[in-house]
Amino acid sequence: MYRLVTDAPGQEAELLDLYKQFYPADKAASAPDIRHRFARVCGGWQNEIGIDGRKYAYFYAVDARAADDALLAKRLEKRAAKLALYRSLADFSGLALPWGSLTGIRPTKLAYELLSEGIRPEALADTLCERYDVSPEKAALTARIVRAQAGYLTQDETRYNLYLHVPFCTTKCRYCSFISETADRAAALIPGYVELLRRETAAALSLIEKKGGRLFSVYVGGGTPTALSAGQLDAVLGEIPLSGIECTVEAGRPDTITQEKLAVLSARGVSRVCVNPQTFHDDTLIGMGRGHTVADFYRAYELARRFGFSLNLDLIAGLRGETAADFLHSLSCAAALAPENLTIHTLSRKRGAGLYG
Ligand code: SF4
What we know:
By secondary structure, the protein is α/β, with parallel strands linked by helices. The protein has eleven helices and twelve strands. The protein has helices spanning 12-22, 70-93, 107-116, 124-132, 136-149, 190-210, 230-237, 259-268, 282-287, 294-306, 324-336, and strands spanning 3-6, 33-41, 44-51, 54-61, 159-166, 168-169, 181-182, 214-222, 246-250, 272-274, 310-317, 341-346.
């Protein structure tokens, strides 16, 4: 039973997530009562935390850069509250979490923020440890990833990457927290959405041109863009000069993939397609509401292969009901196909997903 009362504005859910990391479901019965008083005071944020009668107090100064940046101020306020809760719970429980007070953020995103603040690359790992209580091992890993990404991520401001969002799917996966609707329920909205997306794409391309920029890559995601008809896909892509540009289309649901749609993608110059099995176990697919089978995936993969696309496959580790051996089976099935990319996600239970709770 979790009992957390906080007056930090709009932060209860994130603080609760952090609290649950110290006391996961099998230890919920021993989770202590927490009262968190949070106040904006002159020059910073004051946190007073009571855990089962034990008292903690932390003051964190406001970063000067937040003075005229309301969004940054909000972000830092949230981090201050989480850090205070993390430190009090770590002291109370005697536990340390590998990622310290970080939840709900890609650690490398934070690392890039620190670098843009002027932190030297060689001081990155230490800064993550000192500011957010990240363990030395995870901080070093983050710094290593940032080093490995050097040369791939560029600050070239003439390069533009375009993302097009198609928020429709055939069914709703139970782990999905994305803003998406099933194509059946949204049928009346789809033609209008396609037309607006087409116009907005044209406007974005003209803006890039006016700024003297050039299109570097295009990603069409969602949702499942291939939930659209072949004609609608053609309309969406028709505005974009794709020659010589990397263009990826999420065709995540094998049950949406047809010869006709792949022919449109190929004719329009799409270079990369994602066909996502997520698992190679039919029982799990049914349980997760995916609405397709492993056989459907193989059929769609072979079809996409014949068109010569570079292919990406997504798998999810930790799907409900699966063991490590089940996941290894999926991994070896995926690897046996030798796709150009294999992406492995770990299941994350998000508010807004059917699985949450
Ligand atoms: S295919 Fe992706 S966007 Fe669509 S319901 Fe599943 S997880 Fe959500």
